[in-house]
Fold this protein.
Amino acid sequence: MNIKKVCVLGGGGFVGIHIVNKLGMAGYSVRVLTRTREHAKTVAVLPDVEVVEANIFDPAELNRHFAGMDAVINLVGMLNEEKTGRIDKPMARRGDFHEVHIELPRKIVHACAASGVKRLLHMSALNADPNAPSGYLRSKGLGEAIVLEAGLRHSGPGYRLEATTFRPSVIFGREDSFINMFAGLLKLAPVLPLASPDTKFQPVFVEDVAQAFVASLNNSDTFGQSYDLCGPKAYTLRELVELVGAMTGYKRKIIGLSPRLSYLQAWVMEWLPGKKIMTRDNYYTMQVDSVCKGEFPRIFDVKLSALEAVAPGYLAEFSPYQGYRSAAGR
Ligand SMILES: NC(=O)c1ccc[n+]([C@@H]2O[C@H](COP(=O)([O-])OP(=O)(O)OC[C@H]3O[C@@H](n4cnc5c(N)ncnc54)[C@H](OP(=O)(O)O)[C@@H]3O)[C@@H](O)[C@H]2O)c1
C-alpha cells in the first residue's frame, strides 16, 4: 500500500493536532474534517493541510470528502455526552455516545468502501469493551469492533479495508484536559476531595501516540491489529494528583473519597453548569484500572517519554512563582 493522502476526522483536537503535524512532517498530504474551521485553526496553518468544514454524520458528505484519499484516520470522540447542542448546526446536535462512537465508525467504514479507501486507523480507548461498566467504554468498544470487523465484511474482488485500532490510557501533553484540570483544581482549592483515588492510570505522551499512528499507516504488519498504548509508569489517581501538586508547587491536602462518596460527588458535579469536570459515567469508567498488561508495542519504535520529564514544562504556568519568572523574563 502506498499511502500519500490522508483524511483525518477530529484532526483539530488535542491528539489530532499532533498526528496531523507528524503526518505533514512525514510528507503526507492531509485533509482535516471539522464541524467548524475555528476548532481546527491550529492545523489550518500547516503546509499540505487542508481544513474542510463538514457534517461528518452525513454519509454523502463522507463519500465526497473521502474520494481520492488513500487512508482515513478517525479521532472523533468525547468523554461526556453533550446534553445541549447548538441547534443552528444540525451536525452539532449529534452529541450522544451511540451516534459519535458507534454510528459514526459504521458510517466511516461504509464511506471508505464506497470511495475506495483501503486503510483506516481508528482511535478507541483502553478498556473499551461492549461489556464495560460505563457508557463511554461500552460505546467505544462497540465502535472498535465495527472497525475491526470491517476488513472481513468490506472485502471483495480488488477491495479490502485494512483497519488498525489504538487503545490508549489517559494521554498527556501541553493541551491535555486531565493533567491540566488537576493543576487548575489544585491551584484553586486548599483541600481536594478526590473520587476513586485508588484507580490506576498509565499516562502516555501525546507525541508517542501520534508516532504510533503515523508509523502504522504504511506498515502491513499492523493491519487488522488493535494496540493498547500506555506510558512507562502506572500511578494511582492519588499519586498522579500529588505529582501534579509537586510539579506546580501547590501541595494540597487530598482527601480520598469512598466509592459511595465518589459516586455522590460525580452525581452533584454532573449537574453543575459549564464544562463537566466529573460525571457518573466517568465514575463508572474509573471502576477499571487504566493500565496496560504488556509494554508499548515495539513495532512502532517509540522511545517513551515520562510524565515527570514532560509535564513540568507545560505546568509551569500554574506555578505560584510564575509571576516572578515572567518578571525575570523566564
Ligand atoms: N485525551 C485522552 O486522554 C484520550 C485517552 C484515550 C482515548 N482518547 C480518544 O482519542 C480521541 C481524541 O481525543 P482528544 O483528547 O484529542 O479529544 P478532543 O480534543 O476533544 O478532540 C476530539 C475531536 O472530535 C470531534 N468531536 C468531538 N465531539 C464531537 C461531536 N459530538 N460531533 C462531532 N465531532 C466531535 C471534534 O472535532 P471538531 O470540533 O473539529 O469537529 C474534536 O476535535 C477521542 O476519540 C478520545 O475518545 C483520548
Q: What stands out?
A: Confidence is low (pLDDT under 50) at residues 84-93. The chain is about 40% helix and 15% strand. The two ends are 48 Å apart (CA to CA).
